[in-house]
Structures are given as structure tokens and as C-alpha cells.
Design goal:
Oligomer: single chain
Number of strands: 2
Strand order of the largest sheet: 1-2
Distance between the termini: 155 Å
Largest sheet: 2 strands, antiparallel
Length: 122
Amino acid sequence: WRGAALAAALLCASAGSQAALFEDDEARRAILDLRQRVEAMRQQTDQRLADENGQLRRSLLDLQSQIEQMRGELARMTGQNEQLTRTLSEMQSRQTTIDDKLKQNEPSKVSIDGREFNADPK
């Protein structure tokens, strides 16, 4: 009885090992297929990232150029503003001088012997 059980166990084990061999080959093929798919996806992702990285670099260079242009324009406008401020100050000073000279030549009220009249300074 033990011999029969041993024979049956050996027969099942040998049939199972053949089935396991076929299953192992299929599993290996599936693993290799998955590895190829993963590698293809990785390469696509790497390429997409490289393309996006290049586009971002170009955008950054463009923005840097725009910033430099704006800095130059800001410096030019600051200089222009300073010049206008100086010009305005000079004009205000001239206007004050002109006003003072005009006041010297304006007729003024004069009172002599209790009588008031406008006297022309000329």
C-alpha cells in the first residue's frame, strides 16, 4: 500500500514538473515582454522629458532676454526722469527770477501828502 502511494506521488510529481516547465517558459516570456514594454515606456518618457526640458530652456532664455531689455528700458527712463526733474527745477528757478523782476517793474501804490496813487517805477 505504501509502494502504491509512493508510485502515485512520483507520477504526480513528474507530471507537475513538466507542467511547471511550460509555465516557467510562459512566465519568462511574459517577464521579458513586460521588461521590453517598461523599457519602451521609459525611453518615451525620457524623450518627452528631454523635449520639455529643451522647450523650458528656450523659454527661460527668452524671458532672460526680455528681462534684460526691460532693465535697459528702466535705466533709460530713470535717466530721462532725472533729466526732466532737473529741467523742471531750473524752469521753476527761472520763473521765480522772472516773477521777481516783473514785480520790480509793476506799478505800486504810493502815498504822498495823504494822497495815494499808482506810481510807475520807470
